[in-house]
Amino acid sequence: MRNYSTIRTFTVGQWLLLALVLFYVGALLVLPVVALVVRALAGGIQPLLDTFHNVNALHGLQLSISLAVIALVANGILGVGGALVLVRHRFFGRRFLDALIDLPFAVSPVMTGLAFLLLFGRDGWFEPLLGEWKVTFAFPGLVIATLFVTFPFTLREVGYVLEELGTLEEEAAVTLGASPFRVFWLVTLPNIRYGLGYGIILTVARALGEFGAVLVLGGAISGKTATTTTFIYNAIEERQEAAAFSMALVLAVASILLLAGLEWLKYQRSKEL
Amino acid sequence: MGIRVSHLTKHFGSFLAVDDVSLEIPSGDLVAFLGPSGGGKSTILRIIAGLETADSGSVFFDEENADHLHARARGVGFVFQHYALFRHMTVMQNIAFGLRVRGANHTQQTARVQELLALMGLRGLEERYPSQLSGGQRQRVALARALAPEPKVLLLDEPFGAVDAKVREDLRHWLRRLHDEVHLTSIFVTHDQEEAFSVADRVIIINKGRVEQAGSPEEILDQPTTEFVARFIGEANVYQATVQNGIAHVGALPVSAPGITDGTQATLVIRLYDLKFWRDDNGMATVVRTMTLGDRIKVEATIDGAGTIFSQFPRRSSLLKGIEPGVRIHIEVTMARAYPSG
What we know:
The complex is a heterodimer. By secondary structure, chain A is mainly α. In chain A, 77% of the residues lie in helices and 0% in strands. Chain A has two domains: 32 residues; 219 residues, MetI-like (MetI-like fold), CATH 1.10.3720. Helix content of chain B is 25%, strand content 36%. In chain B, the strands form four sheets. In chain B, strands 6-7-8-3-9-10 form a six-stranded mixed β-sheet, with helices on both faces. Chain B has a five-stranded antiparallel β-sheet with strand order 13-12-11-14-20. A five-stranded antiparallel β-sheet of chain B has the order 15-19-16-17-18, with no helix packed on it. At the A-B interface, α9 and α10 of A face β6 and α2 of B.
């Protein structure tokens, strides 16, 4: 239970500021979600159910989930490994590499998609090496696009925790006779678990929500390379509004679940400190 | 297990942390590394534990070279300055860790943990997490964890640095008693003289990466071999004076300076408790003030023709009779150390 006696009375200025913040957050974040839910359920539950019988919609959803899972696994492993290398080791070019990791935060996904087209597309640098294997406008292209845009999240979250953690507990484990594997598994990993959790949730959210890069590199071919987001885009273009809003609602629910996961991790962590 | 360290050198970048250090610690001894912060004490300890690699030099355990041995294979119990307890494990899991990674079965683990909980006075705290313990309790858990796998050597890096004065005092007595019971070769690092002298059998003074002096507390207190040790140990008055006929004149105060060539400058180190003051209107000094330090009184005086001199007496000492600010006093130096200057 919240202890209401600790909430102090506000001055007029503070009330105004609070009202302004609430209005801003409401208009920017809450209102659109409400509008989406209202619109998606305007025609009753039936259009929503129909969408789940739409083969292309289901394929898009399945594709998005596959991409999220691949991004989760790849970034989980590379993120932890990369963070360990960047935080714990001192080598020539470390600062440069460190800056480079934030690149996906900085560049437009559309530009990213175009850049990869130059590598893997028709007349691209790697085209002769690929042979029959198609990257662009195919699943591998979607994977590359997703991995690129989600790359920094886990690495950064784990990196912050590792820096704060230091190496004393690991040294203690070593003097007690633990092998490197045991040190990692029994000491390092449990200590970074919340950072890893945050990173993975952000990775999944980004993977599900990515649009520009998967559009350019995947082509949003219905039933083939259209993910949930590009399916919604196509559906609006084709004036299938019910399908578009239903899938948007699915994405919104996923986002809310991910947010709840994030909050739960924060709560667990605060209990431990 | 005895420890011998031979010609150890270690740089951190261009900083020379350990400078050709050789020392020997007989099996079963409790030794203190004492010296100012940043003097290389902890680095030597970490090299012995295998946590740091020396640039050159060797570490021997019972005359067996340990240089090639990884830290996890050295059988060294290490207690870290800030405990370094595993924060996601309970007290019990922390203590059992060394046994667990060495493959001890559950029964063995439980038996040893119970034994240590009893020894350390930690019963009832088994299920607590480190964040739920007091500083003194954490320290004891760290010790129990280090002792659990029955190490051959116990190394403690500033073990009492992070607890308050009262707990510190208790832990000292307690470490001494523990050592008297288990006779494990132990080294602890400290910058606290009282701690070093009250707990250790032998004290090794380390400064600027070098061993200044090694010996029993009495030897170091009574026969400091270098000026650094004389100045560092205990509070002291330090003067520069020219020696004439074996006597150095600090203003009006004559101090005997044996072993110093006549006509040369000497550094004189006089402990606060190696002085006698008494009231004498024809004396050579004037009392400036007196300060009460609990059970002792510190007296500040000015020597005619020289600077300030401090002395310290038990609170009810007869030497304090009539000593008050402004009075003239006679000073007798009962013991002084003289070192050639330069």
